[in-house]
Amino acid sequence: MTETLGNFPAMTEYDEYLWAEARHHKAYLRMGAHLASMDGQRGTHFAVWAPNADEVSVIGDFNNWEHGRTPLHLRHATGVWQGFLPGVGHGDLYKFAIKPKFGAQTMEKADPYGVASEMRPRTASRIWDLSRYEWKDQEWMEARPVRDVRRSPLNVYEVHLGSWMRVPEEADRWMTYTEVAPKLAAYAREMGYSHVEFMPITEHPFDGSWGYQTVGYFAPTSRFGTPEEFMFLVDTLHQNGIGVILDWVPAHFPTDGHALARFDGTSLYEHEDPRQGFHPDWGTFIFNYGRNEVRNFLISSAMFWLERYHVDGLRVDAVASMLYRDYGREHGQWIPNQYGGRENLEAVQFLKDFNMAVADHHPGCFTLAEESTAWPRVTGPVQEGGLGFTFKWNMGWMNDTLKYIEKDPIHRQYHQRNLTFGMLYQYSEEFMLPLSHDEVVHGKKSLLDKMPGDNWQKRANLRLLHGYMMGYPGKKLMFMGGEFGQWNEWWEERSLDWHLLDLPEHAGLKRWSSDMNRLYLEERPLWELDGRPGGFEWIQCDDVQSSVVSFLRFPYGRDKGLAFVCNFTPVPRSEHRIGVPWGGTWRVRLNSDGLEYGGSGVCPDPEVQAEAREWDGKPFSLALTVPPLAVVVLEGAPPPPPVHEEPPSLAPGESGRVLLDEEHR
Fold first, then answer.
1. Rounded to the nearest 5 degrees, what angle is found at the Cα of 450, between the Cα atoms of 445 and 453?
2. Is residue 474 within 8 Å of 393, Cβ to Cβ?
3. DSSP letter string, 475-535
4. How far apart are CA 439 and CA 322, in angstroms?
5. Cα dihedral 61, 63, 66, 72 sign
6. In the prediction, which pLDDT does 649 show?
7. CB 253 within 8 A of CB 158
8. 555, 524 in Cβ contact below 8 A?
9. Per-10-residue mean pLDDT for the chain, 665 residues long?
10. pLDDT tens-digit profile of 498-528?
């Protein structure tokens, strides 16, 4: 007789079938440590994949960490060792003691499927009951499956939890998940962000890796608190209308001895041959995507965060490194695929399987690819040969735009192609425009410090960059600190410089970011047709002498339009004429040169009348004052359709002939 706490986690024959087929997308329900009861005894069921081990036991405080004292039993069909330990429960520390078959010493390994960990540098896993938290985000979760994120506003605030905000009064310590939750939710809501993206919060041993060298693919890092406390953070964001995206790292894993590396004495999760299994650039191992159990592990990890932690999206790091066998390698340092090519076919299939699993199991959730090559159809449907991602980071747009904006304005006229080239491939993918953490580290300077000119010009250029980005088609991402003009380059060991907001010039930058973000959230033209040509038109993209670039954004139906006029020089442009599709009044919605933003106060009239004068290939035109180093956003709409008067109604007994005669007279 077996009684359970939830579903008893021991593998069934159906589990074995899914496991062998690489379709066990919820393997986390069977693997790892799960509270259970058997024959009236409460305890924990353990399961770990180690097919090449000679013996496996569980060690912990409950048995004085003694190897072999609490053995598990091998399920030969799967290579999974499992067993039930009575009296072991929530909060207990444990590892697996794994004795390899081939004479090596017994190794102590953390649980690959462990849901909680010790604080580094300690490395044990911790048994944890994830069912104890009571979620309060039902309204958000009920609405999630019907959201079409591609046709919705997506404005992401990228956050590193350890350095967003610290507690200076207490030796500059990290904030906990529960401490940061209300502050971050309130700030994201105030600023007009739709989502927060966390740099990896999966458990990792080295702070300086920023989480990108993951050892705990199912465990939120213990640096900031418990699993329930991370649930509280996600829950709080959802209750404030803010979605949550996690950075997820299936491209590689570190060589730490307590983790996945040579897990059972063999290359279990990685390739044996370093030409396939080792990243020379990063000093990390590469997953063996052709192995079914590895695919089960990784896709289960993705499903786990979406299901158990209510995460809304996963951003996959370093996709390019997964797609190509020769990534970061010289000739002779890589092994071609079965057809002699450099494509990693197993990784390609894994990414397709991953994206299909997200779509099938969690409608309304989405995936993002950090991918910087010309690989075709990253966001195309899997059924049509694509990889199936929802969005791709537009690294080309980011590199070209920063290369342009960092130049002295006097030289920009020679590089305007950097701003226009991206439209040649804009509709090849569904894009997100990233100004991410990678652009403000390792000597690259902060966004504000990248800008040319004196301090006033730097701030004006930053406002211009942000406004230009928010108008350009594609979803948006801004790394923390960029929104208020952080001067210092980002460093994971210190807080953002929040004291800068006491200065009016930085408060102005923050206000501009907030107002621009809110305009973006409110206005359909800025996101409804991001991936379709009907949502964007250049007005002027070749006026290199004045370095003024302008364009239009439209929603479905073209019932309105927003014009963005960007002056990339410090010279005000008076009577600058641009073509527009409609006559009537065009109203200025935002002007980055406003005094409230720290600008010079050069402003066009709040309302501008379009003249019936053809310009830029359009039937009407506006003559504007365009401020220096500024973006002006105007709103216009087509005239209403003509109203056709209804003929007067007939009174009882009257004829239409009589009424017509009366009208004629």
1. 140
2. no
3. EEEEETTTTTT--SPP-TTS---GGGGGSHHHHHHHHHHHHHHHHHHH-GGGTTTTTSGGG
4. 22
5. negative
6. 56
7. no
8. yes
9. 51 90 93 92 96 96 95 92 95 97 90 97 97 96 95 97 92 93 98 98 93 95 97 98 98 95 95 92 94 96 98 97 94 93 96 97 97 94 97 97 97 95 96 97 96 97 98 98 97 95 98 98 97 95 94 96 97 95 96 97 92 96 96 95 61 43 37
10. 999 999 999 999 999 999 999 999 999 999 9
Domains 13-132 and 534-636 share a fold: yes
Domain assignments of the chain as residue spans, ordered by start: 13-132, 151-393, 534-636
> To which CATH superfamily is domain 151-393 assigned?
Glycosidases (3.20.20.80)
Backbone torsions φ then ψ of 490, nearest 5 degrees: -65, 140
End-to-end CA distance of the chain: give it in Å, rounded: 100
- Dihedral, CA atoms, 478, 480, 486, 491, nearest 10 degrees? -120
Task: Report the 10 Å Cβ neighbour count for 230.
Answer: 24
Residue-wise over 25-53: b if at least 16 C-beta within 10 A, else e?
bbbbbbbbbbbbbbeeeebbbbbbbbbbb
Alpha carbon 191 to its chain centroid, in Å, reads 18
Tokens 């077996």 sit on residue: 2
Partner residues linked to 633 by β-bridges: 564, 590
Residue with tokens 């010493």: 105
Quickly name the fold that domain 534-636 has.
Answer: Immunoglobulin-like (2.60.40)
Q: Among positive and negative, which fits the CA dihedral 248, 250, 252, 257?
A: positive
The residues assigned a catalytic role are 317, 370
Give CA–CA dist 12/630, Å, rounded.
Answer: 64
CA–CA distance, 352 with 365 (Å, rounded to integer): 15
Q: How many residues does the chain have?
A: 665
Helix (H, G, I), strand (E, B) or coil at 354: helix
Token pair 């004291």 in the structure block, residue: 499
Distance between CA atoms of residues 163 and 154, nearest Å: 24
The superfamily in CATH containing domain 13-132 is Immunoglobulins (2.60.40.10)
Q: Which DSSP string do the residues of 599-623 spell out, in sequence order? A: -------SEEEEBS--BTTBSEEEE
